[in-house]
Amino acid sequence: MGAEAARAYVELAGPEHPSLIDVGHLVDERFGIVNIPNSVWIDEAGMIVRPAEPAWPNVPEAAVGDPTAEGAPAPPPGRMGDMMAAASQIVTDRAPYLAALRDWVEKGGESEFALAPAAVVERSGARGLDESAAAAEFELGLFLHGSGEVDAARAHFREAHRLAPDNWTYKRQAWSIEPSPLEGPMARFWQGPLPGAEAEWAYEGDWVKDANGIGAANYYPKFQP
Amino acid sequence: MLLTGNHVSRGEFERGTGWSIRPEGACRGDLCVPLTGVGQSTDDDVDVLPLAERLGMAVIRHSDGLAAVGPASLGGRALNSAEAPELMLPDFSGNDFDLRSLRGQKVVLVAWSPY
């Protein structure tokens, strides 16, 4: 959590654009983002022309070997193998997203991918009182976790997950700050119970269980022209 | 927005929710919700609970001294209008960056995390 979790990646990439730190997930709340990576396109007048949707860089996809493919090396045993199997099923619609982005950059409001204001609002995701309450529960969870009240934080995170089950950000953030048996940058991807301590896991779901629950191929919505 | 009591200043309410209190009501961009019957707000005092109810903001209480206010749920969608919400966040040096400073150019706002 916080700037230090992201600093090494940003320094390595050396972007020319501003890189901002959003510890409180304000961008999610204001723009309706429920998973990452996501983008929002905003025109010169400050009008959103595409609301939150999965966003991909113009670099080849990192190879995640499908451990179920013929000839693939045997996956590691246990959860690590399950994680790799689920991750290999994730679909990232890079080509159509990037083609649409180039089209908008070139044509602006004339681009077929620049949506009218009513369509932007309609596509921006559901937010009723349950989603509002989930955001408040999540904010309390973040604050209490940062204050060292971990059990109290988990209770609020659980409520956020119950109220907004399609919000992956609430889940991934809560799961990723739990203990991991892995070291280094992979540690935060564990997002599930420790081996042999499944009964002590504080949440109903975990990344492998929930990704497989919806079908990992559906983890990111398909690009919608 | 976290609350330690039921009242905040107008500035705190605006920074915390993205909604400003104006004579015509609570406004976000070009959308204003009349506050008739909600009570008067001054610069230093906004009574949050009735305002939250009018805007469809859930209030979740953790204890007597700590609660959180969720985002507005008017209209049932995450965005109330296509006008980009106010957004001010710090960079790695701790300097605040205002999304509005990019007006006049196309912006791709990318949300990302190392998890």
Q: What this model shows, in words?
A:
The complex is a heterodimer of chains A (225) and B (115). Chain A has 225 residues and is mostly helical. Chain A has a domain at 128-169. Chain A is 44% helix and 5% strand. Chain A is built from nine helices and two strands; from the N terminus they run ααββααααααα. Chain A has a two-stranded antiparallel ribbon. In chain A, a hairpin with a 5-residue loop joins strand 1 (38-42) and strand 2 (48-54). The longest helix of chain A is centred in the middle third of the chain and has 18 residues, at 129-146. The radius of gyration of chain A is 19 Å and the shape is globular. Chain A starts with a helix and ends in an 11-residue tail after the last helix. The mean pLDDT of chain A is 92. In chain B, the strands form four sheets. Chain B has a three-stranded antiparallel β-sheet, with no helix packed on it. A three-stranded antiparallel β-sheet of chain B has the order 3-4-5. In chain B, strands 2-6 form a two-stranded antiparallel sheet. The model of chain B has no long low-confidence stretch (mean pLDDT 93). Chain B has 115 residues and is of the alpha+beta class. The longest helix of chain B is centred in the first third of the chain and has 8 residues, at 10-17. Chain B starts with a strand and ends with a strand. Chain B has a domain at 2-76. At the A-B interface, helix 1, helix 2, strand 1, strand 2 and helix 4 of A face strand 7, strand 8 and strand 11 of B.
Features:
heterodimer; A: 225 residues; mainly alpha; two-stranded antiparallel ribbon; 9 helices; 2 strands; 44% helix; 5% strand; B: 115 residues; alpha+beta; 3-stranded antiparallel sheet; 2 helices; globular
In brief, what are we looking at here?
The complex is a heterodimer of chains A (225) and B (115). Chain A is mostly helical and 225 residues long.
